């Protein structure tokens, strides 16, 4: 069964201005000033 809380691998959660996927860094809570979240964090 797919966990609805777990984002799909096909949908990045964060990226860099050049389009590089930064989802792993986002998940590890390692951000830099150029990282762009793809959605708002859950409330």
List the helices and strands and how they pair.
Blueprint: E1 14-15, H1 23-27, E2 36-37
Antiparallel strand pairs: 1-2
Q: How does this model look, in words?
A:
It is a single chain. The chain is low in regular secondary structure. It has one helix and two strands. The chain has a two-stranded antiparallel sheet with strand order 1-2.
Overall shape: globular
Per DSSP E runs of 2 or more residues, the count of β-strands stands at 2
Written as H for each helix and E for each strand, in order along the chain, the element string is EHE
Q: Oligomeric status of the shown chains?
A: single chain
Strand % is 5-15%
Counting DSSP H or I runs of 4 or more residues, the number of helices is 1
Rg calc: 11 Å
How confident overall, as mean pLDDT?
Answer: 77
Low-confidence stretches: none
Question: Structural class from helices and strands?
Answer: little secondary structure
Strand order of the largest sheet: 1-2
Distance between the termini: 24 Å
Helix content: 10-25%
List keywords for this structure.
single chain, 43 residues, little secondary structure, two-stranded antiparallel ribbon, 2 strands, 12% helix, globular
């Amino acid at each position: 069964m797919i966990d609805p809380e777990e984002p799909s691998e096909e949908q990045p959660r964060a990226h860099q201005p050049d389009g590089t996927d930064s989802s792993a860094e986002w998940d590890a809570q390692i951000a830099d000033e150029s990282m762009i979240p793809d959605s708002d964090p859950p409330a």
